[in-house]
Amino acid sequence: MKILMIDNYDSFTYNLVHYMESNPYGVEIMVRMPDLLHGVSLEAEGIIGIVISPGPSHPADRQDVIDFVSRHWGHVPILGICLGHQMLWHMGGGPVIRGARPIHGHTYDISHDGRGLFEGVGMPLTVTRYHSLVCAGASREFEITAESDDGVNMAIQHVKYPIYGVQYHPEAILSTDGRKQLFNFIKIALEA
């Protein structure tokens, strides 16, 4: 059993991979760049979930990843992190806009609903943010499950499918309970 990590050309991807590889379930992490997704078969590879990594650019500029994720929407659990979070929000009809100010390497406390990724996770949760864009307004397919103390959408969950997004970096050393959230996603994928 494997989790597919889509590497959006980001320096944080292998920190995520390292954390996820230490999972207690024996699930492997398979990394692919967007230009190699055309050759990936979830069934043939034994892929039980997809993680969309952080990365540069606006999510609307990543049509290759959007197309791949769209084909698997509702079939396997999906987790988007930072750019991946914004991509899911965009795919669900929510606007992604430039934030009031760029936030890179700053910690914030967030409140969450304790469900899904946040099961067994502390409250408030301290997270590390690296982003210039934010998920604004509402989405027809997602509910907001966590917000920062400055009122920014920090996490989402699909209203029907096991699809989740987090704006922050759970793998950052200053983020608390990051490994627990990533393991929660793997557990969700195993149980789907």
TrEMBL record:
One of its GO terms (biological process) is L-tryptophan biosynthetic process. Residues 4-186 form the Glutamine amidotransferase domain. It holds the Pfam family GATase. Keywords: Glutamine amidotransferase. GO terms for cellular component: cytosol. The keyword Isomerase does not apply. One of its GO terms (molecular function) is anthranilate synthase activity. The keyword Lyase does not apply. PANTHER family: MULTIFUNCTIONAL TRYPTOPHAN BIOSYNTHESIS PROTEIN, MULTIFUNCTIONAL TRYPTOPHAN BIOSYNTHESIS PROTEIN-RELATED. This is Para-aminobenzoate synthetase component 2. It comes from Lacicoccus alkaliphilus DSM 16010. The lineage of its organism: Bacteria, Bacillati, Bacillota, Bacilli, Bacillales.
